[in-house]
Design brief:
This protein is of the alpha/beta class and 482 residues long. It contains 15 helices and 14 strands. Helix 6 links the parallel strand 1 and strand 2.
C-alpha cells in the first residue's frame, strides 16, 4: 500500500507543488485582509506558515489526496479539495491547542486562510489539468503494449494483462511467434507476423513489448535485438527466459514475474525530482520568455509581417507529436523554401537541415558586393533567445529542461532502428549535444551517439552540470554554439 501511495504522489509532484503554493498564497492574502499588512517577517507568523506547509504535505502523503487527480471531474475535484482543506484546518487547530498557542493567533486569520485555500487550490488544480490537457484520462493516456506470444499462451496473457493492469497499459496488438489462423485475441487484433514486428513497433510507436513464449527462437532473438536498438522496453515472462540484454531487472506486471530490459531504469523519486526541476525552471523561463517576446516582438513584425510566436510539429517521447514553440526568426514562407535550398544543406545525409547564412532568417541579406548582413533573427538565434518559449512546453510536460532535441516529422520519417533511441526520453531545451557545440556537429550519427550517451549516463547530477554549462555559455555569449 505504501509503495502504491509513494508512486502516486511522486507521479503528480506538479500538483503537490501547486497545492503547497496555493496554501501559502491563501495564508498571505488572509494576513493582508485581516491586518492590511503581510506579517511574514514576524517570527510567529513565519512559523505558522511553515507549520501549515508541513501539515499540508503530511495530509497529501498520508491520505493520498492526489490519487486519480487527472481522472476527477469538476464536482469530484471540489469534494476532494474541500476534504483536504478541512483536514489541514483541523490539524492546524489541533497543533495550536497542543502547543497552547491558540490565543496567540487571530481566529479570523485561520478562517480566511481556510476559505481562500479552498478557492485557490480548487481553481489552480482545475487550471493545471486544463494546461496539461488532461480533463479525462482515456486510452490515449495509457502506455501502448504489444504482446508477442505463443498461440497457446496468447489468450491467457492478453486477458491477464487487460484485467490486472488495464489502468496503466493498453494492449494494442498481438503477434504470434508462429503461424495461427486467428485475426484477434480477446478482441485485440493480430497486427502482423513475427518477421514484421520490429517495423510495426518502430512505426506505430509501441511503448513496450511483452513476450510470453516457451523458448527464444532466432526470430524472437532478432526481434529483441531490434527492440534493444530502438530502446523499446521489453518484458519477458520468466518461464521462457534464456537470456536478456541491456539492464535487466526483476519486475511484476499483472501478477506475472518478468525480467524487464530497458536502456535506463529511473526510480519514481528520480523522476519526481526531475519533474520538479522542470516545473521550477519552466516557471522562471516562461516569465523570461514573456519579457523577451514583449521586447523583440515589435522588431520582428516590423522586419517580417506575421506572428511573433512560431510553432512546429515535432516528435517527442516515444513518438508522441506535439507543437513546439519558438520566437519566429525566419520569414513566414521558410518551410516552403526548404526544398529549394536542399543543395546548400551542410548535413549531406539529409537527417538534419543546417545552412550557412540561412537566407530564410529575418535580416539575413547579401548586398551587391557579396557582403553578408544579419539582423534580429540571427541575433536571437546566436544567443538562443528564440528558444525561450519552449519553457511553455516544459510546463505542459511535453519537454524537459534537459534531454534530447525533438526531430521534425520529415526528419523522423528517415530514421532507422538505432535512431529511434533518441526519443526514449522527453526532448529537452538543452542537452549533451547542444552543449557540445551543435553548430560544429554536422554528422547525424555523432548526434545520435551523444543523445544515446546522455540517456545511458543520465542522472540528476548530469542534468545539473548541463544546465550550469548552458547558463555559462549564455553568459559568455557562446549560445550560438549550443
Amino acid at each position: 500500500m505504501y509503495k502504491r501511495y509513494r508512486q502516486e504522489w511522486t507521479k503528480h509532484l506538479d500538483f503537490i507543488i501547486i497545492e503547497e503554493i496555493s496554501l501559502q498564497i491563501a495564508y498571505v492574502l488572509a494576513m493582508w485582509l485581516r491586518f492590511r499588512d503581510v506579517l511574514y517577517s514576524e517570527g510567529m507568523y513565519r512559523e505558522l506558515g511553515f507549520i501549515l506547509f508541513l501539515i499540508d504535505l503530511i495530509v497529501i502523503m498520508t491520505i493520498n489526496t492526489m490519487h486519480n487527480v487527472l481522472k476527477r471531474g469538476y464536482y469530484a475535484e471540489f469534494v476532494e479539495t474541500l476534504k483536504a482543506c478541512i483536514l489541514v484546518f483541523a490539524l492546524s487547530v489541533v497543533y495550536m491547542y497542543a502547543q497552547k498557542i491558540g490565543t496567540d493567533y487571530s481566529r479570523i486569520l485561520l478562517f480566511l486562510t481556510f476559505l481562500l485555500h479552498l478557492i485557490i487550490s480548487y481553481i489552480t488544480r482545475i487550471s493545471w489539468k486544463y494546461v496539461l490537457g488532461h480533463k479525462k484520462v482515456s486510452d490515449a493516456g495509457k502506455l501502448s503494449m504489444l504482446v508477442v506470444a505463443d498461440p497457446a499462451l496468447a489468450e491467457e496473457t492478453v486477458r491477464t494483462l487487460t484485467e490486472n493492469h488495464g489502468d496503466t497499459y493498453i494492449v494494442t496488438g498481438v503477434v504470434f511467434t508462429r503461424k495461427d489462423k486467428r485475426d484477434e485475441v480477446c478482441s485485440v487484433p493480430v497486427v502482423c507476423d513475427i518477421e514484421d514486428a520490429g517495423e510495426y513497433i518502430c512505426r506505430e510507436w509501441i511503448d513496450s513489448v511483452f513476450i510470453d513464449c516457451e523458448k527464444i527462437t532466432p526470430r524472437i532473438d532478432k526481434l529483441m535485438e531490434k527492440c534493444r536498438q530502438m530502446t523499446v522496453t521489453v518484458h519477458f515472462a520468466v518461464s521462457g527466459l534464456r537470456h536478456m540484454g541491456s539492464h535487466p531487472f526483476g519486475n511484476r506486471i499483472a501478477g506475472i514475474t518478468v525480467l524487464t530490459a530497458t536502456v535506463k531504469y529511473v526510480s519514481p523519486l528520480e523522476h519526481a525530482l526531475k519533474r520538479g526541476m522542470d516545473i521550477i525552471g519552466g516557471i522562471v523561463g516562461s516569465i523570461a520568455a514573456v519579457i523577451i517576446i514583449a521586447i523583440t516582438g515589435p522588431m520582428i513584425k516590423k522586419q517580417s509581417p506575421g506572428p511573433v510566436i512560431y510553432s512546429q510539429e515535432r516528435i517527442g517521447k516515444n513518438g508522441k507529436k506535439f507543437r513546439m514553440y519558438k520566437i519566429r526568426t525566419m520569414h513566414t514562407d521558410a518551410d516552403s523554401m526548404k526544398s529549394e535550398l536542399a543543395d546548400m544543406n551542410r548535413n549531406r545525409d539529409g537527417m538534419m537541415f543546417k545552412l550557412d547564412h540561412d537566407p530564410r532568417i529575418i535580416g539575413n541579406t547579401v548586398d551587391e558586393n557579396g557582403v553578408r548582413h544579419t539582423g534580429i533573427g540571427e541575433f536571437l538565434r546566436k544567443h538562443s533567445l528564440d528558444e525561450f518559449p519552449q519553457f511553455f512546453n516544459v510546463l505542459r510536460g511535453q519537454m524537459s529542461l534537459v534531454g534530447t532535441r525533438p526531430p521534425t516529422v520529415d526528419e523522423w520519417e528517415k530514421y532507422e532502428f538505432r535512431h529511434r533511441a533518441r526519443l526514449v526520453c522527453k526532448p529537452g531545451i538543452t542537452g549533451l549535444w547542444q552543449t557540445s557545440g551543435r553548430s560544429n556537429i554536422t554528422d547525424f550519427e555523432e548526434v545520435v551517439d551523444l543523445d544515446t550517451r546522455y540517456i545511458d549516463e543520465w542522472s540528476l547530477s548530469l542534468d545539473m552540470k548541463l544546465l550550469i554549462k548552458t547558463v555559462w555559455l549564455l553568459v559568455r555569449g557562446d549560445a550560438g554554439a549550443m
